[in-house]
Amino acid sequence: MSTEEKPAAAPRSLAEALRGRGDAELAALLRSRPDLVTPVPTDLTQLATRAGTRASVVRALDRLDLFTLQTAQALAVAADPAPYDELLGLLAGDEGDRAVPAALPGAVRTLREQALVWGDDDRLRLVRTARELLSPSPQHPSPTGLGPTVREATAGMSPGRIQEIVTTVGLPSTHDSVSAVAELTGLFTDRERMAELLAEVPFESLEVLERLVWGPPYGQVTADPATRLRRLLDRGLLLPTAPGTVVLPREVALHLRGGRAHRTVEPVPPPVGAAATHPPQVVDATAAGQAYTALATVEELLKDWDEGGPAVLRSGGLSLRDLKRTAVALDVTEPVAAFWVELAYAAGLLASDGEADERYAATPAYDTWRERPAAERWTTLAAAWLTATRTPGLVGGRDAKDHTLSALGPGLDRSAAPEVRRRVLTLLAGLPEGAAPDAGSVTERLRWERPLRATDGAAGSGSTGSGTGGGDDLRSRLARWTLTEAEMLGVTGRGALSAHGRALLGMPAPKAHAERTDRSPEPTGPGDRLPVHHRPAIPPPDSPAPSSPLLTALTPAEQAAASAAAARLLAPQLPEPLDHVLLQADLTAVAPGPLQRPLADMLGVLADVESKGGATVYRFTPGSVRRALDAGRAATDLHAFLAAHSRTPVPQPLTYLIDDVARRHGHLRVGAASAYVRCDDDAMLHEILADKRAAGLGLRRLAPTVLAAQADPAGLLEGLRRMGFAPAAESAEGDVLITRADARRTPPRAAPEPVPEGPPVPDDTLLAAAIRAVRAGDLASTVPRKAKAGEADAGAGSGELPRTGSAETLATLQAAVLTGESLWIGYVNAEGAASQRVIAPVRVEGGFVTAYDHTADEVRTYPLHRITGVAELADEEN
Any coiled-coil ranges, and where (predicted)? Predict the structure, then answer.
């Protein structure tokens, strides 16, 4: 036989096309369509079968951009198989769109890589399931607006009627309907003859065709059609499909459209426009201010819930009343309050306590978070927001069962949220530095990149519409929410992406920013800069989105490095915490900036916040001073604290207030009997009994220094404090109980896991193992084997396991050990799963065979009783 290489034969199936791919191409396919690798296919034939299932094809179509989807739709209405030139004509039309020839090779390449199209350029084939989904039908009209072909529309028509149409249009009559339909199709696809035929049709009849040409192609007619319709029906320009229904044949519509399958083809993604441009320094400063506000808001929220937050609804989540109270406490609107609550929950700082009377409270992780530097605390929040699937913007909406969606409740996860957030910020990063995007252009770009996600359920509904219409689909809303939330969080400033926001995405700083910071100190931390090999390849904004959005997501290690880089850039922009306040004579203290943690914590107990802004004003009241005394502080401690941290002298009214409250604090003792009041001052107890406000406490004197109460200790404490006294709680041993403001914490709680969108993308190790297993399994299922005497050809791919007796199996294996030959075996594992393998036996003893298994690419040992049979491999041709 000649040793010259023969040209590779055209693949006859998708499995053969996959068999001709390299390992890198198979890895790209499995990475972009991870559902194909779960579980690992046994061979390439099974991989091709799985790639053609409806669920997998719908998921793959859902990932296509608009032009690639339009290419697939054009293939669905083209011949099967279709040459490349025919596909180009359907997309570019007779006039020729200059952008289409440049973009079409990339679209076809994407469809091939996704295993949605196979075959050479002269025989392009759309996967059968994709053709069924995208082809026109009365039940599922094609987005192209085209109808059935002449052959499909005349399938149920009588032969006599077909011959009448052929005669009317001037074609010679034929002996059978098949050749008649072929002649009619040839006429409708011949541009010159078709133009002559239409020239004979009156104008009013052409108007009917114009109304159907761009779809829908179906129309209604009466039993006695008008003359203008009769002319069209007689010439086959309209064909009946059902009583009272006619359709415009696909070939006629394409002629009237000038050969175009779509009215509008969009080979180039719409650009993202800039609405305004600001100096980068202003953007970074504004974003840093927002970041500091975000930290203060989260701390204020969780401080308000320190002693136990709102109750958890029976159905889960936060009640509308509690959300309103939280919004009032934070001085924000309810949607904004829902965002901060959900952000704290996504970062693992907030959770339910799991008690019988379940309530929300801060987690132990919150205490650790508060002790970290401000920039690191911000990156924790920002990274949690970037990857969270929970969507605060849905709060207040309705679910599929018409139930209201509540903050912290179920039903808020949207698996597309992380992809949209990252993609929106990436589009912002592609704009000039300091440019804020036009929100409308961002949503238009996202709709171009994922047109099938025009509705919440598009990913699973099997819808095949282009989805470009409308502006309130889920991805558009997610994009708008992303722009708003990024501004509140401080990822953007004045709408433009900040330098630390860019670093959070794992992207290097712009050249201009790098030049501005050249004189800054060199970073010393291990995570201060992203290693070059850890920076993901993020496409420019004018390039189509990748086939799988998770390809641009960072690994945990890369995200940690990106967060460290973001913290390094943000830290110099944040104000330095102060160690002092300004005490004033009106019992207030002014904090001219953020306070250091110990000072802020102590001042938060000793005084009440009166106003916030550039400077925070605290007010000292008898209640706030009592709160500090309840926390175990003595009056001398409070005097020393204020003197040490005030830049102004301690006002005399404040000194008197502390001494007066301390003198009365603890004079009364409240303990548990049901409850009792103990005091050495008999006159004070008599005063309490005489007070009408004590009537609800059920007090009665048990002894000169003791009053018993029907109220519980907590109610008794609160009642006496409302009366103006300063009681202290005591333990059963008579010791004063110290109450700390931050005592309420949940048990350790992990942050909520994002809800993945389909199977996770396999890592490189799993991909390498899967490809090796698929290759070996394919070898086992396709390798030629020798036929036995009297047996038919046992070529490759029969799919049946070899069957031999135990004695023959043992003898064949022992012979292969001596000769070093490989064998084809059938094997059934302990779970009963059967497989075919190619092995090279090394040793046979003790009821086991030890062999090199080409399927697993390693040496393995198999029990002989689980081998169904063996067969020798056919000799390779030289």
Answer: none
Res 105: pLDDT: 94
Tokens 């076809």 map to which residue?
108
Overall size of the chain counted in residues: 878
Show the 3-state SS of 303-321.
HHCCCCCCECCCCCCCCHH
Indicate if the pLDDT at residue 636 is higher than 80.
Answer: yes
In angstroms, the Cα distances linking 873 to 442, 734, 826, 828, 838 are 59, 91, 13, 20, 9
**Contact predicate 40/16, CB 8 Å:** no
As a whole number of Å, the end-to-end CA separation of the chain is: 7
Backbone φ and ψ of 617, nearest 5°: -110, 125
Distance CA 762, CA 764 (A): 7
Cut 0.85: pTM above it: no
CB 408 within 8 A of CB 345: yes
755 conformational bin, left if phi > 0, alpha if psi -120 to 50, beta if neither: beta
Please tell me the distance from the alpha carbon of residue 825 to that of residue 871, in angstroms, as a whole number: 6
| Pair of tokens at residue 433 | 């530095």
SS3 content of the chain, % helix, strand, coil (to 5): 45, 15, 40
CA distance 222 to 219: 10
Rounded to whole angstroms, the Cα distance separating 389 from 752 reads: 9
Q: Which residue is it, tokens 């599922």?
A: 140
Mean pLDDT, range 225-246, rounded to an integer: 88
Reference 269, options 113, 443, 434, 473; nearest CA is 443
CB atoms closer than 10 angstroms to residue 515: 10
Residue 362, strand partner residues: 350
Beta bridge partners, 177, equal none
CA-derived radius of gyration, the chain: 38
Residue 519 exposed, middle or buried by CB count within 10 Å (0-12, 13-18, 19+): exposed
Tell me what the mean pLDDT of segment 503-525 comes to.
60
What is d(CA 676, CA 669) in angstroms, rounded to the nearest whole number?
A: 8
Residue 773 to residue 52: CA distance in whole angstroms: 20
SS (H, E, C) 594-649: CECHHHHHHHHHHCEEEECCCCEEEECCHHHHHHHHHCCCCHHHHHHHHHHHECCC
What token pair was written down for 560? 């940690």
Tell me what pLDDT residue 89 has. Answer: 92
